[in-house]
Amino acid sequence: MNAYIAYKVSTRTTLPMFKNRTFSVWRRFSDFLGLYEKLSVKHSLNGCIIPPPPEKSIVGMTKVKVGKEDSSSADFVETRRAALERYLQRVVCHPSLLQDPDVREFLERDELPRAVGTHTLSGAGFLKMINRASDAVSKMTVKISDSDAWFDNKLQEVESEELQLRKLHAVVESLVNHRKELCGNTAVFAKSMAMLGNSEDNTALSRALSQLAEVEDKMETLHQEQAASDFFILAELLADYIRLLGAVRGCFEQRMKTWQRWQEAQSTLQKKREVEAKLLWANKPDKLQQAKEEITEWEGKVTQYERDFDRISVTVRKEFLRFEKEKSKDFKSQIVKYLESLLQSQQRLVKFWEAFLPEAKAIG
Amino acid sequence: MMQEGLDDGPDFLSEEDRGPRAVNVDLQTDATLQVDISDALSERDKVKFTVHTKSTLPNFKQNEFSVVRQHEEFIWLHDSFVENEEYAGYIIPPAPPRPDFDASREKLQKLGEGEGSMTKEEFTKMKQELEAEYLAIFKKTVAMHEVFLCRVAAHPVLRKDMNFHVFLEYNQDLSVRGKNKREKMEDFFKNVVKSADGVLVAGVKDVDDFFEHEKTFLLEYHNRVKDASSKSDRMIRSHKSAADDINRIASTLYTLGTQDSTDVCKFFLKVSELFEKTRKIEARVAADEDLKLADLLKYYLRESQAAKDLLYRRGRALVDYENANKALDKARAKNKDVLQAETSQQVCCQKFEKISESAKQELIDFKTRRVAAFRKNLVELAELELKHAKGNLQLLQSCVGVLKGDT
């Protein structure tokens, strides 16, 4: 099956690094995954928090490709579109990532070379691949230095927050389902009320029952819209942040890996020095020369790795604080948006019942 | 363990619940005989209702008195009306349904079993929820038993019934045992015979337009009320589930909010508080829909069945009358047992005419009552829905205002 869905990515910018002010390109889902791969390879070793792309969902995709025309596949495409949009917006909000030529190319270039190796890999899967080695490292609870207490605390916070968000996400999904159920049941009830109104032989009561059926019909629409809000505003926000917190954890693990590399280099250096000392005693001049060279090499490495560690620590700290700020802004704005949607629902509800009340009073 | 605590508890009716309760039926309060359920007690497997009577009638020894009755005794009273030939021409007020706390009890038990897997706050919250649910079911069953008695007390003929007076006044156990297996089987077969018979009887076209119309009307109405009733139940259940989810969202947001004292945590706490309040309102909306809509439909399902039963009895009497006529003609033709046939025919005729006369009035009253009850409940429903929506709106507006102001 060669059919695929293409998403239109439109940019409007005043940045000089782009050729035009407004431009659009067409990208497919694997292109987004490809971008993520490229960015991860380049930046995750620096301790950057790379925003993860949305999950692949094989079931949903197949349905769409076969051309199944029902609301669930339309939902799926919309869900993915919105998720990809949020993903890109997070990428371009990141000051370092925006400077990356791959990002510029993604936004600007008309034809993008097909990203390979992404057809079975999801964003999360790739992240796991990069951080596989660090899984063993993260199990260590060695205290590195005084400033490490900060990193320790933050990692713990991240882990407990991720737990709570997962819990919250599960409940919100349950709410979405119950609201969809309520929507269906309300529609069915409205019909049965209309039927009852038809058989009622008192005219005024019959009319009132029909009106009630109409109110319930309107409620059905309300519930449907509310369920969409629950999902698109709340559930997706939580899903995004569960993924992002995973990326943050990955960052911390990268730092640990760097520290470990430095430690290992230090211990290797120590061993080399011991060898040198032994050779001094044994009086083997050429072997001694080699040993001295190796010591110099490893001294260089130790210095390098220490610098790397310091650098990554600074970056991770900076990234984390930036992330917290973004998260705070994001949650506040999205939740307020959600509450406003609830507000609008209630306003409409008030209107429906205000219209019905005189009908009910007119009975008899 | 929790079950015991709840079952052996003191009575659940608060002060506001005593006195004439909002009933599904719009009844004239008559000073000569007023009946209500002033109190109720929930014990292990049964509910004990305190039936309170105020009367100026000479039949009673006192003007005001109370007795304690259980569900089976209400059923006994109802069945005694149904079995009384004298009352064949009346709509017998439908019997109240058996108090059913099984579902609620099961939930409480599950909660007890799952105590270890949730936080103390969650557990206390859920326990309060379930206790409130139990209380709501309890209040409903009290209301339904009360409506039955009030209907009887408001009926010009049934209120004079001997058994009714005994029910109200005799302050000992009526020693009415529930039906045993054999009696239940007998009932079952009686109903089967009745339905088959009912089909035959319904097939007989009525000369009287009024009754012919009523037959058609009631059949369709009953079926549609049944449908509406079950669909309303399902809708309200979904509503309650959604409210429960909002409750859990509020709890989780609260946990998130207490992790730290950052801006975003304070934000979570405010939103959690909001959801706590809105979900209470949502739960009230579902409860009010249950009371004003679902219960109304359930009641008229039972009433319309009682009306159908009346039509059936009249139809039966008509068939008997027609058969008696035929038998009389035959007897006259053969000139054998004519007197017997004449008497039999007269009895059938009187029975049929008696039923027809009262049935007509009963059906007209049924319509009046129905219209009044629907009006009352639909108006109250609309007013409550409005009240709750406005309440929700205010909460949301003020919270959004605060949150936007903070950022």
UniProtKB/TrEMBL annotation, chain A:
InterPro entries: AH/BAR_dom_sf, PX_dom, PX_dom_sf, Vps5_C. One of its GO terms (biological process) is protein transport. It is found in: Cell projection, Lamellipodium; Early endosome membrane. The keyword Acetylation applies. GO terms for cellular component: cytosol; early endosome membrane; lamellipodium. GO terms for molecular function: phosphatidylinositol binding. Keywords: Acetylation, Cell projection, Endosome, Membrane, Phosphoprotein, Protein transport, Transport. Belongs to the sorting nexin family. Involved in several stages of intracellular trafficking. Interacts with membranes containing phosphatidylinositol 3-phosphate (PtdIns(3P)) or phosphatidylinositol 3,5-bisphosphate (PtdIns(3,5)P2). Acts in part as component of the retromer membrane-deforming SNX-BAR subcomplex. The SNX-BAR retromer mediates retrograde transport of cargo proteins from endosomes to the trans-Golgi network (TGN) and is involved in endosome-to-plasma membrane transport for cargo protein recycling. This is Sorting nexin-2. The lineage of its organism: Eukaryota, Metazoa, Chordata, Craniata, Vertebrata.
UniProtKB/TrEMBL annotation, chain B:
Residues 1-22 are annotated as: Disordered. GO terms for cellular component: cytosol; endosome. It holds the Pfam family Vps5. GO terms for biological process: protein transport; retrograde transport, endosome to Golgi. GO terms for molecular function: phosphatidylinositol binding. Residues 1-14 have a biased composition (Acidic residues). Keywords: Protein transport, Transport. Residues 27-174 form the PX domain. Involved in several stages of intracellular trafficking. Belongs to the sorting nexin family. This is Sorting nexin. The lineage of its organism: Eukaryota, Metazoa, Chordata, Craniata, Vertebrata.
